[in-house]
Write a structure and sequence with these properties.
The chain has 11 helices and 9 strands. By secondary structure, it is of the alpha/beta class. The protein folds into 2 domains: 136 residues, Rossmann fold, CATH 3.40.50.1370; 157 residues, Aspartate/ornithine carbamoyltransferase (Rossmann fold), CATH 3.40.50.1370. The strands form 2 sheets. The protein has a 5-stranded parallel β-sheet with strand order 7-6-5-8-9. A 4-stranded parallel β-sheet has the order 2-1-3-4, sandwiched between helices. The protein is globular. The structure holds N-carbamoyl-L-aspartate (NCD).
């Protein structure tokens, strides 16, 4: 097992299952300390840069909450228009500057590969909070943590990942993360236009995880333990007409779940939701997406502490 300290977090596949289990053990302790209202001030005197070139609510604010709960400080921006990039500065210069102001950089950017590029420039560790449609490793970490909390394990369950598997980085990273475990089966449920990308399919094939691609949620719903729903990533479609073809093509309703799902099925969603989960599902036994969003804080507290070498 490699030490966590000083590591960049670019893809969920940079980590082994044992390393993730170490993270989850730390997250459990953070959760417990949070619930007692006594999180340790591990980050006193540390500054974390939150460089969000793309919109974000949960990811940015949960990183910010995580750092502040631990007594650290954050600097940063949301949206490129707020930075000197709008004046023509290049990304490399922006990163060099952040690197000289902070002990750790958390970055989200619309280009695939931007996080890896920035990590090569920065001397301090860099955490990828989403690069285009490619990776969203910290989302996958909290997704796995949520499943583990709900079911006691990630192994042996039947998963359905529904929605935009082509442009969705949260879905891609979650699917990749399952290859580090032993799920019983993974259904990739999407309209044909939004099927999983070849590089993700290749990792699945090589991992030996049993997976099936389908367009029909109804057919596979009775088998599922976990249904991971994602929104159609409208902003990533190169052609608005392509978006029109798939818009509104799936919707999870309470009626559908009551009719077909196992009573213990749990519905996850990285959020934001648009119209793919009916609001009536929110108060039902199936909904786990608000719990999932809440767990982002202890997981990111654990992650930042491990990467900065202040835990255990
Ligand atoms: C996701 C993202 O930004 O990739 N959101 C998130 O971080 N929770 C999913 C999305 O935008 O649909």
């Amino acid at each position: 097992m490699r030490a966590w300290q000083g590591r960049d977090v670019i893809s969920i596949l940079d980590f082994t299952r044992d390393e993730l289990e170490q993270l989850f053990a730390a997250a459990e302790e953070m959760e417990e300390k949070l619930s007692r209202g006594k999180p340790p001030r591990l980050l006193e005197g540390r500054i974390v840069a939150l460089a969000f070139f793309e919109p974000s609510t949960r990811t940015r604010l949960s990183f910010e909450a995580a750092v502040k709960r631990l007594g650290g400080e954050t600097i940063g921006f949301s949206g490129e228009e707020a930075t000197s990039l709008a004046k023509g500065e290049n990304l490399a210069d922006t990163i060099r500057m952040l690197d000289s102001y902070a002990d750790l950089i958390v970055m989200r950017h619309r280009y695939e590969g931007a996080a890896l590029y920035a990590a090569e420039i920065a001397e301090h560790p860099l955490i990828n909070a989403g690069d285009g449609r490619q990776h969203h490793p910290t989302q996958a970490m909290l997704d796995l943590y949520t499943v583990r909390k709900l079911f006691g394990t990630v192994d042996g369950l039947v998963y359905g990942v529904l929605g935009d598997l082509r442009y969705g980085r949260a879905a891609s990273s979650f699917i990749l993360s399952l290859t580090l475990y032993r799920p019983s089966k993974v259904y990739l449920i999407s309209p044909r236009l939004l099927r999983v990308r070849p590089e993700v399919r290749m990792v699945l094939e090589e991992s030996g995880v049993r997976f099936v691609e389908t367009e029909s949620l109804e057919e596979v719903l009775p088998e599922l333990d976990v249904l991971y729903v994602t929104r159609i990533q409208r902003e990533r479609f190169p052609d608005p007409q392509e978006y029109e073809k798939v818009r509104g093509s799936y919707r999870v309703t309470l009626d559908l779940l009551e009719r077909l799902a196992k009573p213990d099925l749990k519905v996850l969603h990285p959020l934001p939701r648009v119209d793919e989960i009916d609001y009536r599902v929110d108060g039902s036994r199936y909904a786990a997406y608000f719990l999932q969003a809440r767990l982002g804080v202890p997981v990111r507290m654990a992650l930042v502490s491990l990467v900065l070498g202040v835990w255990p």
